[in-house]
Specification:
2 copies of one chain form a homodimer. The first copy, chain A, is an alpha+beta fold and 230 residues long. Helices cover 51% and strands 6% of the residues of chain A. The first copy, chain A, has a 4-stranded mixed beta sheet with strand order 2-1-3-4. In chain A, helix 1 packs across helix 6, helix 4 runs parallel beside helix 6 and helix 5 packs across helix 7. Chain A is globular and about 50 Å long. Chains A, B: It comes from Methylobacterium hispanicum. Chains A, B: It holds the Pfam family GST_N_3.
Chain lengths: 230, 230
């Protein structure tokens, strides 16, 4: 059985949890607090970031984008009709463009700020950078999330799913990131109904259940977080 | 003929210039200053970043990592013996791990700071964020580059090329980033001879020539920049 090193509110880890669940894989989940920089974890992934997939045979696959490519190459062909990386060249470019959009750009502009300031800092020692949240970072993230929500709405006004006709990695990456922001109550859903409808569809998938059960100790989610009909 | 939208000192653009040259492709080079946020460029790539490859048939491929995957999938098989993405699963994971290391992590910790502060800001209007360089950012980047150089030395003490037995995308990405830092004279080459020897080998390849001819107007490179025997 594979092991996934993850942090429950690391959005890129959540993306891989969704991918594995959609593939019917049930890995051992090992919680990792990346800011602790554990030696054993740094040996697995010198970059020090979650998620990391450790295959039963010992192969280490670090990083959400790399794990997604790896899982598609090793398991994708068995998913007839449910493969999350398309076959046509132009479609692959579009899925990868949006995958990077959410795993890197949305993370840098929204999720990274909010999760670090509002969640991780509660558990970090002051030596690791813990302490009071930086309100400027939170304000910037709240402005940025509005632009991203509009972009999702723009795409969804033209497509069945974010990258085209089928559910792909791009939908799961976008929804994984939004789920972290939604836990914190920071998604302005009323600003874009099209984006909200898309999120409700992804959120209703069985693969999403374990994410909706995650809780930050001492910090309940926004009231609608686990509500499928929000 | 394909067109590459690039900025000469965008390290991720340099990586794709190297890849195209290694593949024997000669694209039209269109210089783009990403901070100007030209409407026509944002239509090609809403993320607003270089590089972007525009194929003759009209397909737009944005982002260095995505262009690399695309070129391997469309041209890689024709490169018998010189393919820069290996076939074996574990080797592909390692190339992608190191590709992301340089295109994202090294960029965020070193090249992004140095190129923005020392080069781009000279050409930006004050509205776009131009002005005097932020010395704290430059100092941080100079400390970080030392750690990265040691990591390259560590890898090269165990391997023929950065990701294994063959030249791969990982070598070109690492060398592209170091070439920008080297122009500015900020690589502490004396700290790691193993890393320096590897760089000298990559730098001697014909694909590197056009990078070594780039100049920032009014800002000559470090004296050894174009010297193959530095």
């Amino acid at each position: 059985m594979a092991t996934l090193y993850h942090f429950p509110f690391c959005a890129n880890s959540r993306f891989i949890r969704l991918v594995l669940a959609e593939m019917g894989m049930e890995p051992v989940l090992a919680e990792e607090k990346p800011w602790e920089r554990r030696d054993e974890f740094l040996m697995l992934n010198p970059a020090g970031q979650t998620p990391v997939l450790l295959e039963q045979g010992g192969l280490v696959v670090p990083g959400a984008g790399i794990i997604a490519e790896y899982l598609d190459e090793t398991r994708g062909l068995g998913l007839t009709g449910r493969r999350m990386m398309p076959e046509a060249t132009a479609d692959r470019v579009e899925v990868r463009r949006l995958l990077e959009w959410f795993l890197v750009k949305f993370d840098a502009e929204v999720t990274g700020y909010l999760v670090t300031e509002k969640i991780s800092k509660r558990f970090m020692s002051s030596r690791d950078g813990g302490g009071a949240p930086d309100m400027n970072a939170i304000r910037a993230a709240r402005i940025n999330v509005g632009y991203h929500l509009k972009y999702i709405g723009y795409l969804m006004a033209r497509r069945r799913w974010i990258a085209g006709d089928h559910l792909t990695y791009a939908d799961l990456a976008a929804a994984a990131h939004l789920s972290c922001v939604d836990y914190l109550g920071d998604v302005p859903w009323d600003d874009d109904e099209t984006a909200r409808d898309w999120y409700a569809r992804v959120k209703s998938r069985p693969s999403f259940r374990s994410l909706l059960a995650d809780r930050v100790p001492g910090m309940p989610p926004a009231p609608h977080y686990a509500d499928l009909d929000f």
